[in-house]
Amino acid sequence: MRTFWTNLRTSHPGVTTIVTGNDLNGTILMVGGSHLLEDRRRDDRVEDLQGGYVTAGFWDSHFHLTEYGRSFGRLRFSEGDTREVVLGRVEQHARTKPPGEWIIGAGWNHAALQADPDKERLDRAGLGHPVLLMSLDYHTAWINQEAQRRLGVTVGPEGILRETAAFHAQEEAMRLDATDPAEHVARGMREAARLGLVGVTTMEDVGGLAALQSIPSGAVRIRTQVFLRDGHAEWLLASGLKAGFGSDFLRVMGVKLFMDGALGSHTAWMKQPYADQSDTVGMSVLPKERLLGILERLTEQQAVAAVHAIGDRAIHEALLAFKRWPAQLGSMKSRLEHAQLLDDEDLALSAQGPAALSLQPCHLLFDRPIADQSWGPRGRHAFRIKDILGARIDTVFGSDAPIADPNPLWGLWAAVHRGRPGDTPWYPEQRISVREAIQAYTESPARIDGRPSGRLEPGCWGDLTVWSEDLEEALIHKTPEDIRVVATIVGGRRLV
Ligand SMILES: [Zn+2]
To answer: Based on the domain organization, do 201 and 168 belong to the same domain?
Structure first.
């Protein structure tokens, strides 16, 4: 049995029909006009896509699937919330929770609070519950006294933990919170499919990996590709796994490492001090010897690395390390995650190096004012996507969900317009075309991941995203809110 997907549009006017097979990946068999229907046999299926606009399935290359699923049950703040608003929402939430249960929230923004975080104020708002609130970039945690007591950590009167300490506190709070990660993974997959995503590259711990394995084959299941977070690197290295181990629906790629912190927390590691905090250049969170040691072992093992680097110094050090130890397997490449501030020296270094760049254009929508303030004129090198594509560096897009909304339409929009609808574009010379932006969600990730997908061609997996509008038109003349996902098709099977 084959499936004839008909009554569709693509970027090629002659293509109105796509035929997928009945194998596990629903491999694309034929692509062409409506005449393909003449080849139909009795047991073939016909699916009318009602004039929808079909692209290769969208893939988000930087995701936290368990976290994303979990975020639906959590307090979610807006980037403009003041301290009073944050505390008010914590108190409201606390009233609805059984006594003693954790209150976990995310998304507060220090720049908008108009006051400093305060441990005691958070205690009063928490009504006896332990409270942990992750910042917008997740690199800072604000906790209250009850959380401090349960976590066994020490914090000052502000109740603030940064970087590794913040991540540990968050992991520990989730462990004590004791909800089932499989539920969160399932929820995350359903929500991602609704946004048109056929797959994600997700950063997980071993618990998240186990949860991914537990998804039954009959359930709504997008494809996943896993990088294990730093704390679990030894497990992966000891296992000897090569990149791509697993199935076409769940593959293990390698290890995720952190070189530095984040821009909003002034912990991104810089070559020169911050414009608005001249006494700091941010911080390195990974000793160089450890980075080189892990990359060397990954290179020998033929697994790959995803290295978080935001500041120019962190990017530079990571690129030098990749030059020595490329950590790749065939076309499966290591990648530098975020690469937010790439100066000319490192643009050239990256163009010669083995690693791909994994970018999150949607972050520029909220990082723009922070970059202007903290990086000053260096901001012209932030998210310099046009230059990166011009240097022919492999480039893939993602969202870092739940840190940002994973709706890929916003990622496309940000890369094409460099601002929200109605804004003047930020460094407009770095705008790219819609077609280039779509490639960074489809063809390019498939290439650096070594997957036969990302194109509407016979032989590729039958992973398709169907939109209500012609994206190349709509992303110029309309806004993301005017575009709907009509269908998400994974392995020739319709999930949405
Ligand atoms: Zn991330």
So the answer is: no
